Amino acid sequence: MMGASSRRDFLKASGASALAPFLPAFAGALAGVPLLAREAFAQVASETPLHGISPFGELKYGPDFAHFDYVDPAAPKGGRIVTQLSQWSLNQAPDTFDTLNAYVLRGTGAAGMGLTFATLLAGSADEMGAYYAYAAESITLGEDRLTWRFRLRPEAVFHDGTPITADDVVFSLETLRDEGHENLASTLRQIEVIEALDDRTVSVRLNPLAGISTVFTIAAGCPIMSRAWWAGRTFDATLSEGPLGSGPYKVGRFNFGTYIEFDRVENDWAADLPVMLGRFNFDRIRYDYYRDRNASFEAFKAGVILFREEFTSRNWASDYNFPAILDGRVKTDEVPDETPSAGQAWFFNTRRPKFADARVRNAIALLFDFEWTNKNIMFNSFERSMSFYEMTEHKAQGRPDEAELALLEPFRESLPEAVFGEPFVPPVSDGSGRIRERQREAIAMLETAGCTRQGGKIVLPSGEPLTIEFLNNSQTFEPHHNAFIRNLRQVGIEASYRLVDASQYSLRTRQFDFDMIVARHSMSPYPSRGIRQSFGTETANAPGSLNLAGVAHPAVDALLDEIIAAKSWEEFRTANRALDRILRAQHYYVFQWYKPTRWLAYWDYYDRPKVAQRFGVGVIDTWWTRPDRIDATGMTG
Question: Which residues contact 201 (CB under 8 A, 6 or more apart)?
């Protein structure tokens, strides 16, 4: 299945930076970073125009940098690239779309819409959390350290030639705050004042309690929309025409649920900016939607799809031997991925009484045999995950130190003793598939939780049998579930796999109508109020929130406050480690696996920069079509 950070990085590489508020970029470890959040900005003189911002101190690129190191500034323009969009490749991403507005809860937005919008700043793919001037030519921090002013470039225009004004930015932020998706709106509500000081200057004043991440959400995540274009339109209604944008691409042809194309904007106003030079070189980018993995792969073999990232180890090991690969027309590559891993897991729905007891959840988790699954289904391609903080300094190790204990002790009575010892580590099997000892342990644990065995079935204290429905919208993941289900059934837990279509899956997850589902979660690399969306009591029952497991615990809420308010790297790390201990000890999740490399396959039409990105593969925004192969990509068709 999926490698480390696959969904997040694919969206980023696909130009979907518009989704950054929902999927925090570059989540994970930040080893060696000396400064954090307000400490970093405390070093910046107020009222000094800046060319970029970072919560971690120094930027890699100075004010006069010409381009990012991982691009080729001489890359030719032309050709097209076609890739697939499907649930099985993006970890529960929709395999259809019914609207061209990706920023509202209603409907399923099309992939790649971020390609059509400029943002105030643009992120760097070889730094953690650094952003540089894009539509804004400079950023100024006010004396109160809460007021930020963005000065727009005079050349910044929408695709119809009208200038991007401060009023458009104000409209965008206010609309997204008031009518946008809750996961974005909740952050934007931390802004106290949004105002246009003149045609080119936007002032934003944060609530004193707002996390510094609010600035980054504004600067790097929010599309700049045209107030004039949206006049008379309902923002959260289904959108069937491409909105007026200002990014490197505009919406081309599309068919809801089938495909969408983006055409490069000729003479793009931003093409020669340092953050854009050498990027977005394809004349056309197309995303094809598939609900069937086999159909998608056959389309790739036939040259209908031109680039494919593989996420299924079985397919990578056995399917990439067709004629076009053997004769060199299709290339394959396995590239390193330095991005700290997010956490992929089965998420329990703890809102349901049968999963309310952590001992029941732990017993169920014991019956997942990773070693057998990795050996027999995934060709030993993956490492076992046990935390949302894999490959980071924030992953809890050993017993809690003095600083962690200071945060945890006030809640000792409400926490399991395991929080105060070695962090939970799942048991390791011999890979044979025989886990009888572990099954006996699971049964004993269920009995301590008040469950009984009646007629070979596990019965809850309520008298109802313990049943689990694993909800999914892809058959590709079914073998992994079946191995888990087999072990559950052997101890008397009635488990099943339920396959539903994309729209039903989206509705049921938004409404928390499931027992267990698979999802991934990335942790923010800086203090962010957004973390409450994933673990806070206030979001546990908010439809559409990221708190899929329904985590609602006062100790967790207190640690989230500590994470958001951290004033040093040490405070931030300590609070995250303490949170990691609780999440693991409470067994809200059955963690799965991660992989430190990415599997790529593509028709031999393309070239790429000599210097690779550190974070992501950069296919959509840094590769290009070789001039001698433009016709082969189908641009003449």
Answer: 149, 150, 151, 152, 166
Whether 268 is in a domain gets the answer yes
Query: C-alpha distances in angstroms, 234 versus 40, 173, 250, 365, 389?
Result: 40, 16, 21, 46, 40
Query: How confident is the model over 384-401, as pLDDT tens digits?
Result: 999 999 988 899 999 999
- Give a yes or no: residue 422 inside a domain: yes
571 and 428 in a common domain: yes
Kindly state the helix (H) or strand (E) to which residue 453 belongs, with its residue range.
strand 452-454
Report strand pairing: 593-594 vs 249-255: unpaired
Rounded distance between C-alpha atoms, residue 196 and residue 214, angstroms: 18
* Pair 180, 44 in one domain: yes
How large is the angle between the packed helices 554-565 and 569-586, nearest 10 degrees? 160
Q: Would you tell me the crossing angle of helices 358-366 and 569-586 to the nearest 10 degrees?
A: 80
Structurally, the chain folds into a number of domains equal to 2
Where residue 587 falls among pLDDT bands split at 50, 70, 90? very high
Where b means 16+ CB within 10 Å and e means fewer, 329-358 reads ebeeeeeebbbbbbbbbbbbbbeeebbebb
pLDDT given at position 544:
87
With contact defined as beta carbons under 8 Å apart, do 584 and 372 qualify? no
Domain co-membership, 252 together with 358: no
- Residue among 383, 471, 436, 416 at smallest CA distance from 582: 416
| Residue 231 CB contacts under 8 Å (≥ 6 apart), including other chains | none
Residues 482, 535, single domain; the answer is yes
Q: Is the pLDDT of residue 375 over 80?
A: yes
We report the CATH number of the domain holding residue 443 as 3.10.105.10
Summarised one tens digit per residue, pLDDT across range 184-237 is 887 888 889 999 999 999 999 988 876 666 676 677 679 999 999 999 999 999
Residue 6 binned pLDDT confidence (cut-offs 50, 70, 90): very low
CATH number at residue 191: 3.40.190.10
Please give the pLDDT value at position 413: 97
> Buried b vs exposed e over 305-320: b needs ≥16 C-beta within 10 Å?
bbbbbbbbbbbbeebb
Whole-angstrom distance, CA of residue 87 vs CA of residue 475: 10
Lowest mean pLDDT among 53-57, 259-263, 431-435, 500-504: 53-57
pTM: 0.75
Q: Which domain holds residue 179?
A: 6-291+597-633
CA angle 95/97/103 to nearest 5° reads 115
